């Protein structure tokens, strides 16, 4: 993993999962946009981290599964967040085939954004716009 930023995202993923378990009313989720974005970030991070050989296989996927399980989603909601994770993975897999300095820089940007979004979710301040950030916002062209 990529140092302190990865540790923060890991800690926040665990915190988001724990906080979600305390949410008795899944019907009204003001943080849905942030949770969707967090799923995309975890998918992107999973791909980039594995591409650069710094992650345990399926480590990020396991964190995403813990969050989804803690939310006690129905089948349709679960599919939506799993699709967001997979979208994050596929989007980067389409343009990043080898680990380069740009790939590592992009990974750092995803880790930083993940820490920011995860912090909002863990603090109950979720509700940011989905689809912000990501590969386009990172300002890095594909390798």
Automatic annotation (TrEMBL):
Residues 120-143 are annotated as: Disordered. Pfam families: DUF2385. Residues 1-21 form the signal peptide. Residues 124-137 have a biased composition (Gly residues). Keywords: Signal. NCBIfam families: TIGR02301 family protein. This is Uncharacterized protein (TIGR02301 family). It comes from Oharaeibacter diazotrophicus.
């Amino acid at each position: 993993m990529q140092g302190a930023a990865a540790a923060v995202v890991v800690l926040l993923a665990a915190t988001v999962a724990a906080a979600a378990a305390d949410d008795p009313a899944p019907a009204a989720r003001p943080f849905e946009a942030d949770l969707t974005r967090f799923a995309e970030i975890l998918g992107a991070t999973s791909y980039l981290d594995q591409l650069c050989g710094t992650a345990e296989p399926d480590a990020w996927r396991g964190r995403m599964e813990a969050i989804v399980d803690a939310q006690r989603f129905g089948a349709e909601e679960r599919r939506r967040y799993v699709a967001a994770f997979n979208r994050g993975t596929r989007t980067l897999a389409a343009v990043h085939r080898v680990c380069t300095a740009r790939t590592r820089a992009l990974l750092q940007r995803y880790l930083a954004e993940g820490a920011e979004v995860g912090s909002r979710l863990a603090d109950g301040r979720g509700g940011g716009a989905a689809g912000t950030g990501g590969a386009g916002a990172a300002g890095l062209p594909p390798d």
